Amino acid sequence: MRVASPKALIFDVFGTVVDWRNGVASACADLFSAREIDFSPLAFADLWRAEYQPAMERIRSGNRGYVRLDVLHRENLDIVLAKTGLENRIEDAERDALNHAWERLPPWPDTVEGLGLLKADHLLAPCSNGSIALMARLARFAGLPWDSILGADIAGNYKPDPQVYIASVAALGLRPDEVMMVAAHNDDLFAARECGLMTAFVCRPNEYGPEQKTDLAAESDWDLIAESMTGLAGLLKH
Amino acid sequence: MRVASPKALIFDVFGTVVDWRNGVASACADLFSAREIDFSPLAFADLWRAEYQPAMERIRSGNRGYVRLDVLHRENLDIVLAKTGLENRIEDAERDALNHAWERLPPWPDTVEGLGLLKADHLLAPCSNGSIALMARLARFAGLPWDSILGADIAGNYKPDPQVYIASVAALGLRPDEVMMVAAHNDDLFAARECGLMTAFVCRPNEYGPEQKTDLAAESDWDLIAESMTGLAGLLKH
Predict the structure, then answer these.
(1) How many CB atoms lie within 10 A of CB B12?
(2) Which of A45, B20, B21, B74 could form a disulfide with A25 if both were Cys (CB 3.0 to 4.6 A apart)?
């Protein structure tokens, strides 16, 4: 694969850079254990994540003004607790604490080394639907060497709305064709390409666990296709 | 001095964290030498900086929509070249290159060690009038360990407009009284205090050179008053 060298790389984070499923499940496991709740933490994490797109869609569609993902996560937690019949088992303060699980997600094993390699030659920033507040704390927890935090908060909207990619590129003072979007999700890359960005697919076949059905392979001729962040760094060196 | 421990520190950058005057003068000296221009680089840096407040004031007053500081710096460079009679000596491409001098400013000698100490216990972010594009590149050049970049670009306006402090605090998911503004400029701290932030004055008596007349001392009972960034870190440890 040959590609013009991007000046900056911007990243999807949940699933691409960090393992949200096991991170959230781990926090749920601690709480459920303390409260003697018999519910699968991984199943709970999946249910919580399932409310993610519908909540953002209300904002993307214009039915609700922009609110940060931290707020949506907290609202979605209430929804999932009600759906699972656990609403009387978890106090408000515990819910607030559990909501911070999204700030303490483990990086994939190749993430920190890969970002370190990539940082030598490129500006690096998340272009995530997570807020600046969330992404800044997550970066400290996971050791992510971002140069700035871009994404939803910069744009006041959620991916895949084009404004999120456009505002993130503009914030770096670059043209879209100077920036590469890195994601484990084909739909994210289709949207970024539509805005004129270069694209890199990093395959994360276990993001949704062993039963994952989506995004198991590149669905287009993305500029780069890699199996890991270190692999991506290798491709960009050549 | 006693102060509640802030969760985040946000910083003025030009003058407080980095030495804009010697940094810009150094870039000017290189160019003037190559072009055999006999003009004091320090005097030119001072003239360039003198256009800073008037340019921002047109935006703060509502007479012009928000444009990034990079654009204002470039416009101001043209103004100063005309005022100094050098407009026919420096090509457009050289002006564009010189404008990047603001991304390559040396930190004060205590800055990097001080920020490193402060980062252990606090979120750190610039709350500067510099753009994300400018601040991200400056951070790489000077080794500034920011957790994110906040300030004018987040707010779409320039300090001391209250919105810049308010938007920066909100982006961190914190209340104003959980955040401390750090600046070498009393007027910056007056504006931040008005928004409910804690305040720290770090004295930089040579920002404008040996003839500096302003900001030689704290002009109010700021929550903390320090002689250096390492000194500030010491005060926050106690």
Answers:
(1) 24
(2) A45
| Topology, domain A20-103 | DNA polymerase; domain 1 (1.10.150)
Contact residues, chain A, for B70 at CB < 8 Å: 173
CB contact under 8 A, B125 and A136: yes
Could you read off the pLDDT of B83-115 as tens digits, one per residue? Answer: 999 999 999 999 999 999 999 999 999 999 999
- Give the start-end residues of each E strand in chain A: 8-11, 123-128, 150-151, 179-183, 198-202, 224-226
Q: Is B146 on the interface with A (CB under 8 A)?
A: yes
* Distance between CA atoms of residues A207 and A222, nearest Å: 20
| Chain B residue numbers touching A173 (CB-CB < 8 A) | 68, 70, 131, 133-134
**Cα→Cα distances A93→A33, A84, A90, A105, B56, Å:** 17, 19, 8, 20, 44
**ipTM, interface predicted TM-score of the complex:** 0.95
Secondary structure of residue B51 in the 3-state scheme: coil
Global pTM reads: 0.96
Correct CATH for A8-19+105-237 of 2.30.40.10, 3.40.50.1000, 3.30.470.20, 3.30.40.10: 3.40.50.1000
> In which residue are the tokens 């928000």 written?
B66
DSSP code of A143? Answer: T
Q: What is the 3-state secondary structure (H, E, C) of B178-220?
A: HEEEEECCHHHHHHHHHCCCEEEEECCCCCCCCCCCCCCCCCC
pLDDT at A3: 62
The minimum CA-CA distance between B31 and chain A, rounded to whole Å, is: 24
Share of chain B above pLDDT 70, in %: 98
